[in-house]
Specification:
This protein has one domain (2-60). Helix 1 packs across helix 2. It starts with a helix and ends with a helix. The protein is 92% helix and 0% strand. It has three helices and no strands.
Length: 61
């Protein structure tokens, strides 16, 4: 079970690293924009990401 968690974490790190590696200026501008968003907007983005991840896990299983 631990190997699945570590594999998932490793894949997440690779995916998270693609944007700053390939497009550092766009990545920086995206984070500048995120800083101007309200807490509610950020929570909605987080909730949407969590639901998408859960749906993907459900679909895989």
């Amino acid at each position: 079970m631990l190997s699945y968690w570590l594999t998932g974490f490793a894949i997440m790190l690779v995916i998270e690293g693609i944007m700053p590696f390939l497009f550092p200026e766009t990545w920086r501008e995206t984070f500048r924009h995120l800083l101007t968003m309200s807490d509610g907007q950020l929570r909605f983005i987080g909730l949407t990401a969590m639901i998408a991840g859960l749906l993907l896990l459900y679909w895989i299983k």
